[in-house]
Each structure stands twice: as structure tokens, then as C-alpha cells.
């Protein structure tokens, strides 16, 4: 008598990454963000770090975001910042040269600070 087990093989490749997983893989090192703020002459604060992180991630997707879209991303991530606060942070970053204003309420990371292909995060896996 043979017994058949109902066992399914695990897929070799992981399921497609959700947007949050992708952001986690591409997220910059917090130390690098702090250093960017310091070099721009800005004090480190949680709102500045979060705005800078979103702009850093956006640089992989084409570069610029509206202040409203940036605010929406922060809200989606659970960050309690008002749109006014986001615009104030962006204004200080523009004044320091860390961020460039592109038209009406559109912003991007300064080109010399945006990640390039050789700065793309690498996997820590041994495979």
C-alpha cells in the first residue's frame, strides 16, 4: 500500500515584490541621509529624514515628485506630517541646495546627491 502525501513544492523564485518591499530594498542607509543633511547645513530631524528618504526613492522612479504626492507617500507610510510641514521642510532643503524645485511644487533630489547605478543596493544573500 502506497501513501501519497499532498505536498506542494516551494517556488524557486519569490513572489513578486510589493511596493513596500521594493522600497525597503532600495531604502538608503539612514547614516547616509544624516550625512547628506549635515553637509547641507541642516539639523537632523525625523521629518527631514523621511522627506529625504522619499525623494531618494523617487530618484529611482524618474526623479521628481509634487509636494502633494510626497505628502501622500508619507501618509501611506504612517508619518504624521501635514502638507504645510512637508512644504516647509522642502523649502529649507531647496534653500540648502539638497533639493531642486522643478516648477510649481515639484521637487527632486539634487543631481550630485541622487543615487546612480553603481550605488544601487546589493543583496546580502550568498546565492
3D architecture notes:
The protein is mostly helical and 127 residues long. The chain contains five helices and three strands; from the N terminus they run αααβααββ. It has a domain at 30-114: Winged helix-like DNA-binding domain superfamily/Winged helix DNA-binding domain (Arc Repressor Mutant, subunit A), CATH 1.10.10.10. It has a three-stranded antiparallel beta sheet with strand order 1-3-2. A hairpin with a 4-residue loop joins strand 2 (99-101) and strand 3 (106-109).
How much helix, percentage-wise, in residues?
A: 40-55%
Number of helices: 5
SSE pattern, N- to C-terminal: HHHEHHEE
* Largest sheet: number of strands, sense, barrel closure: 3 strands, antiparallel
Which CATH architecture of one domain would you pick? Orthogonal Bundle
- End-to-end Cα distance, whole Å, is 41 Å
What characteristic shape results from the CA principal axes? globular
Low-confidence stretches: 7-25, 117-127
CATH fold node name of one domain: Arc Repressor Mutant, subunit A
What structural category arises from helix and sheet content?
A: mainly alpha
The overall pLDDT average reads 75
- Output the radius of gyration: 19 Å
CATH superfamily of one domain: Winged helix-like DNA-binding domain superfamily/Winged helix DNA-binding domain
Strand content: 5-15%
Quickly name the level 1 CATH class of one domain: Mainly Alpha
What is the β-strand count? 3
Trace the largest sheet across and list its strands: 1-3-2
InterPro entries: WH-like_DNA-bd_sf, WH_DNA-bd_sf
